[in-house]
Amino acid sequence: MEHIPLNFPFLAAMLLVGISLYIIVFKRNLIKLVMGVAILSSAINLFLVSLGYRAGGVAPIYTDAPEGSMVLPVPQALTLTNIVIGVAVLALMLTLVIHIYRNTGDIDSHKSRILKG
């Protein structure tokens, strides 16, 4: 990993956030909106893992740790938590899309606003 610049993961996360925000704002298809939220969740995970990376770092699971810097465990724990919450949110969103499709016959976000009550 010595030939990859240190800010490359941050740039990739920013690119993924930009793509996901474009999808969320400009697309009308509900499935594409769910995909945009999934991409945003992946971008946040990449950003959190990139924050915790240290070159030559040692995993903090050893009881007799060698000398040197350790990788930060908090971003890894936040990433695992974000993955679990993200799966639950995506399952809920897909369930709502299925119910909207059953009631309206379409997955267009503008047509789903006719649902009332």
Structural notes for this entry:
The protein is mainly α. It has helices spanning 8-26, 30-52, 73-104. It has one domain: Orthogonal Bundle (Helix Hairpins), CATH 1.10.287. Helix 1 (8-26) runs antiparallel to helix 2 (30-52) and helix 2 (30-52) packs antiparallel against helix 3. The longest helix is centred in the last third of the chain and has 32 residues, at 73-104. It is elongated and about 65 Å long. The model has no long low-confidence stretch (mean pLDDT 86).
SSE blueprint:
Layout: H1 8-26, H2 30-52, H3 73-104
Helix pairs in contact: 1-2, 2-3
Looking at the overall shape, the CATH architecture is: Orthogonal Bundle
Gyration radius over CA? 19 Å
The CA-CA distance between the termini, in Å, is 56 Å
Shape: elongated
Please report which band the strand proportion falls in: under 5%, 5-15%, 15-25%, 25-35%, 35-45% or over 45%.
under 5%
* SSE string: HHH
Largest sheet: none
Number of strands: 0
Number of helices: 3
Estimate percent helicity.
55-70%
Number of spatially distinct domains: 1
Query: Unreliable runs, pLDDT <50, ≥5 residues?
Result: none
CATH secondary-structure class:
Mainly Alpha
In the CATH scheme, what's the topology name? Helix Hairpins
Structural class: mainly alpha
The average pLDDT value, as a whole number, equals: 86
